[in-house]
Amino acid sequence: MATKSTEPVTILSLRKLSLGTAETQIKEPKTFTVEDAVETVGFGRFHIALFLIMGSTGVFWLTGSLLIIGLASVIIPTIGWRWLVRVASIPGIILIMAFKFIPESARFNVSTGNTPAALATLEHIAKMNRAVMPEGKLVEPILEKRGKFADLLDAKYLRTTLQIWVIWLGISFAYYGVILASAELLERDMVCGSKSDSEVVVTQGDSEEGQSPCHCHMFAPSDYRTMIISTVGEIALNPLNILGINFLGRRLSLSITMGCTALFFLLLNICTSSAGLIGFLFMLRALVAANFNTIYIYTAEVYPTTMRALGMGTSGSLCRIGAMVAPFISQVLMSASVLGALCLFSSVCVICAISAFTLPIETKGRALQQIK
């Protein structure tokens, strides 16, 4: 009697097992991350619109400054400064309305667990760019350890952080100081050989306030012209600033521009012509803008991804402190001593120049750090 063969059964079982494994692999759902979607969607109309809206906060800011100065020369002498304030608020209202068309960051939504909102944002971008979303399900990547404030004061970054804070505070102090000081200097008519009516002491009673000197007077057309020319200086050195950052490095470039800023603050004490005063103010506005550009780039590059937002945020806080202190020097102290106020601005810039030159890390040619 023939024995029953078991080999075909074994082969058949192996085939079923193999087919089952293949079917299991095929049925696995496809997934993609936000980075995959961004790469797939590519650059398009959404990014152009985003560039125009967000770029307007920086470039339209400069244009707005020039426009407001020009309007001030017409509106203030005719219908008053209150109408200038009303007109100046219009660009801000327009920007607020434009921001409503900007969706929330898909990366932020994913990191907070709001995957449906992130998917809706990506689909909106793909629709505007006339692109196709990647197939599969949007998944949240493995989150790395998030940075905390204590990381900024870690031994590895402590010195860098403290020096960056000093530089941010000093740059903001000098930036807003030169803007406010420009108006004070023009009101006082610092041109050689000129005698401004604003230098007359006004006495109205026996009170201390009544005997204080009043330097307030209406700007002449030439004063508005000076303000416009000096404001243009904020973009004048951008090409040289870019070359310096890329060839000299961030530290050396920043220390040079900060040192030059200190020098031009001192030059404002010199008795000069109208053209000379315009030139000094023009260079000061150009240099303080270059300082801001360089420290912004350096701060974003020196910290790893997990700490970058913290580094930029805390630096911005110090920046606001510098902006709050500047009016007390450029207006209050300058009313008592022009030389004292300008020397103080110059001294702060010298401290920032030394701090920039001695920064422990140079980020030129250095890849962005992803982890601490």
Automatic annotation (TrEMBL):
The keyword Cell division belongs to this UniProt entry's keyword annotation: no
All copies of the Major facilitator superfamily (MFS) profile domain together span 1-364
Name where it mostly resides. Answer: membrane
Q: Which is one Pfam family of this protein?
A: Sugar_tr
Q: Which domain of life is it from?
A: Eukaryota
Regions crossing the membrane: 48-76, 83-102, 162-186, 336-359
Protein name according to UniProt: SVOP like
Gene encoding this chain? SVOPL
Q: Which GO terms describe its molecular function?
A: transmembrane transporter activity
List UniProt keywords, sorted A-Z: Membrane, Transmembrane, Transmembrane helix, Transport
> How does the entry describe its membrane topology?
Multi-pass membrane protein
Subcellular locations according to the entry: Membrane
Q: Which PANTHER family match?
A: SVOP LIKE, SYNAPTIC VESICLE GLYCOPROTEIN 2
